[in-house]
Known about the structure:
Blueprint: H1 4-7, H2 19-37, H3 41-52, H4 68-73, H5 77-83, H6 87-92, H7 94-106, H8 111-122, H9 128-143, H10 155-163, H11 174-194, H12 196-215, H13 221-227
Helix pairs in contact: 5-12, 8-9, 8-11
Amino acid sequence: MENPLIxxxxxxxxxxxxxxxxxxxxxxxxxxxxxxxxPGAKQKRNRLSLLLQKPEFHEGDHLGKxxxxxxxxxxxxxxxxxxxxxxxxxxxxxxxxxxxxxxxKTEFSEENIEFWIACEDYKKSKSxxxxxxxxxxxxxxxxxxxxxxxxxxxxxxxxxxxxxxxQPLHSTFDAAQSTVYRLMEQDSYPRFLRSAPYLSLLQSxxxxxxxxxxxxxxxxxxxxQEVRPDLxxx
Length: 234
């Protein structure tokens, strides 16, 4: 009779050469369900569609609607009223600066305020090396021709700024910053004050003032007589 181990070699449990084959089969069995669970193109499209419906993907769509400025900036109406006193006062307060930046984004001109902020930070540099690095970044980002966020500067201002790039000083961008500041003050700032979000803040402040005036009216003699009927007017 022939050796059964020859006819059925898989019964030979002592043969180490069969172990790799078992491992391969075990690995294959585990991998099959994983492959089947991969989402198809249709499932991926559905997931992407659901993702795009989340509110955080559309924050910029509602910046121009009344009430969103108050929510985004977290300011009181009284504080917002001060923003209308001057452009400098608006930029001097963090909430005002944030609100104005959001407004410029709705007009696709946020590069102006970003340049102004970069210049303010640049003037705080504490070493020549720091000045050089920041000056190079500002120039390449906002001033040089075809810069990714190029601001609107006249030829003379741009030329003067370019010439000082070899040895930048704290005052290197003063002329350019002043030009952009005036542009925002004369053009964007008035539109900001007329924008729906800002006006909605003022409207919520006006009723509060009116009610305060009504409460602070002067008392008359008849008011006292209602309290003390025996009061006699001589």
